[in-house]
Design brief:
Number of helices: 4
Number of strands: 8
CATH class: Alpha Beta
Structural class: alpha/beta
CATH topology: Rossmann fold
Strand content: 25-35%
Bound molecules: inosinic acid, magnesium ion
Shape: globular
Radius of gyration: 16 Å
Length: 179
């Protein structure tokens, strides 16, 4: 059955914006080394593309937090499924996220990471859904503002699938209901 209802952001538009973000980050962090903190699994595709366009030295680390389960709405319950491997004390940490929706996941994460004393802590998200925000968090880099709809592709999943699709789309209602 046809999965895609509407394409919201094309592959070309994502790649263009990712290049711009990489250039801005490279400029802002000139002379520094960045630890890109990828929030799994949604941030993975974005991290890989973004990192190619950053010209200062970059290290990766990965964290996995869960707030959604398989539902399409945030539960507000955040749990660390996988923690960082390295200490971030004294490091310039840039969190790389796929999407900020209610902000609950990230606000928990930011509080947790601040207590580990990084030299700096900033947030880069590909997508921002401001209309659904429940806690205020300062975002340093945003790829695109998106409407309050359930989106899939380029890191975003529906029941853990379709993260690999290179564009971002609204799935067909019939598809979601039958799955
Ligand atoms: P928040 O805690 O509500 O900000 O949710 C953040 C997480 O929920 C994101 O990192 C995504 O994994 C997931 N999420 C939020 N909106 C969507 C969506 O439209 N499609 C798929 N996953 C989403
Ligand atoms: Mg995520």
């Amino acid at each position: 059955m046809e999965l895609v209802d509407r394409i919201i952001i094309s592959e070309e538009d994502i790649q263009r914006r990712v290049r711009e973000l990489g250039a801005a980050i490279s400029q802002d962090y000139a002379g520094k080394t960045i630890t890109l903190l990828c929030v799994l699994k949604g941030g993975l595709m974005f991290l890989c593309d973004l990192a190619k366009h950053i010209t200062v030295p970059v290290a990766y680390d990965f964290m996995s937090v869960s707030s959604y389960g398989d539902a399409t709405e945030s539960s507000g319950v955040v749990r660390i499924v996988k923690d960082l491997e390295e200490s971030i004390e004294g490091k310039h940490v840039l969190i790389v996220e796929d999407i900020i929706d209610t902000g609950l996941t990230l606000s928990y994460l930011v509080n947790n990471l601040h207590s580990r004393n990084p030299a700096s802590l900033r947030i880069c998200t590909l997508l921002n859904k401001p209309s659904n925000r429940r806690v205020d968090i300062p975002i340093d880099y945003v790829g695109f503002e998106v409407p309050n709809e359930f989106l899939v592709g380029y890191g975003l999943d529906f029941k853990q699938l379709y993260r690999n699709i290179p564009f971002i789309f609204v799935p067909r209602k019939e598809f979601i209901q039958e799955a």
